[in-house]
């Protein structure tokens, strides 16, 4: 797990009306989707947090109200319906300059699976932030009440999908949606980029560019994520034998699956099952 380090260059002042934080230690399914922690807050007037060289990347979503965020060393308005993408090692911050209500939510990413790694500087996007806020609230409430592994799994999968949509500008094109449907229907099939491209049809090179543009990963990385998430779900929620789970996600034997799972998740399938069941 790529834990964010404690920053030594943080300026923080002022108070919040409410703040709720959940990290991967209390919800291990977060790290399964590349997230270290999530939370939401309602800053009061005078609140400010600024990090000069943070060791983690994160996204902040303005749910309602208005404040300011630090973008490329300038404080700019941050209003309802905006998302700030803040890569690691680049200055970022937020501050409240008036007394009107302001509500933010955020996601901090695992440094080993950083979706903002390609950004050279912080960016602002127009976004529908309410779904992200409701999902984060849902995850926190689930952990604090029923704390069901099955529910946590589905909440975090929904959060990952919603963040991807914000990051890449909404939904995906019909061509890509068709390919993703085929992969979800049959993840065990030995798919190749050429075979996937023929489904649309476009060239393999065009398919790679389309995936990177709309989803942020290559077709084979998307398929790997799909297979591993499917395997995690079966390990956590069923008593299937590991060799049978391996077959359902495209691996001909338990050893190959265990090797791939350990490389992807950092622990063998048996250990993952023990933690999550």
Characterize the structure shown.
By secondary structure, the protein is α+β, with helices and mostly antiparallel strands. The chain contains ten helices and eleven strands. Helix 2 packs antiparallel against helix 3 (149-167), helix 7 (219-237) crosses helix 10 (269-276) and helix 8 packs across helix 9 (254-265). The model has no long low-confidence stretch (mean pLDDT 87).
Question: What is shown here, in short?
Answer:
With 277 residues, the chain is of the alpha+beta class.
Q: Structural class given helices, strands, pairing?
A: alpha+beta
- Would you identify the regions where 5 or more consecutive residues have pLDDT less than 50? none
Q: What number is the mean pLDDT? A: 87
Record field, number of beta strands? 11
Spatial order of the strands in the main sheet?
2-3-10-5-8-11
Distance between the termini: 20 Å
Q: What is the number of helices? A: 10
Strand content: 15-25%
Task: Sum up the overall morphology in one term.
Answer: globular
The ordered string of helix (H) and strand (E) elements is EEHEEEEEEEEEHHHHHHHHH
Query: What level of helicity do the residues show?
Result: 40-55%
List keywords for this structure.
277 residues; six-stranded antiparallel β-sheet; five-stranded antiparallel β-sheet; 41% helix; 23% strand
